[in-house]
Design a protein that fits this description.
Helices cover 23% and strands 29% of the residues. With 163 residues, the chain is an alpha/beta fold. Strands 2-3-4-5-7 form a five-stranded mixed beta barrel. The protein starts with a strand and ends with a strand.
């Protein structure tokens, strides 16, 4: 599958399906999510168009010499649960992380026809091999929690929740 995913792509998947995801995704962790919500609350345009996009809950490590990116494993998704419903309402379609989601997030995924993929924790080095391009697009002051735009190839994921 190629990100960004269409509504038809999501319809074609079932909970438990294994997917190899390629295309453009964005990283965002707790602090970046908090800033995005603050921007929305102040009617400030987000630094990227979130509509239809994929957000990977990860904070990539700095790239070692000769590498595109450092370790890029998933972080615990529940840490983003207080922010996710609003971002889903604003058009976020796909989320990637590890662990379960709260009922409010699951309800938003169903209502807005999104999808949540689980990535296997402890595989940061493997996940970094899927990254073909990486650039910080905003919140550089947050270091590894900055928002990165990644181009990935064959990122291994499992469908956990879908709308």
């Amino acid at each position: 599958m190629t990100s960004p995913l269409s509504a038809d792509d999501i319809k074609s998947l079932d909970v438990g399906d294994f997917v190899l995801l390629s295309g453009v995704i964005y990283t965002a962790r707790d602090l970046a999510h908090k800033r995005l919500i603050e921007m929305l609350n102040q009617n400030i345009s987000l630094p990227f168009d979130i509509k239809g996009q994929t957000v990977y809950y990860a904070g990539p490590c700095p790239a070692p010499p000769g590498k595109i990116i450092g370790s890029a494993g998933p972080t615990t998704s529940s840490r983003m649960d207080k922010y996710s419903p609003r971002l889903i309402q604003e058009g976020l379609r796909v989320m990637i992380g590890k662990g379960s989601r709260n009922q409010e997030v699951i309800d938003a995924i169903h209502k807005y026809k999104g999808i949540y993929f689980s990535a296997i924790g402890g595989t940061g080095a493997l996940m970094s091999l899927c990254v073909k391009q990486a650039e910080v697009i905003t919140f550089k002051d947050l270091g590894t929690e900055a928002i990165y735009k990644l181009t990935v190839e064959d990122m291994p994921l499992i469908v956990s929740n879908k709308g």
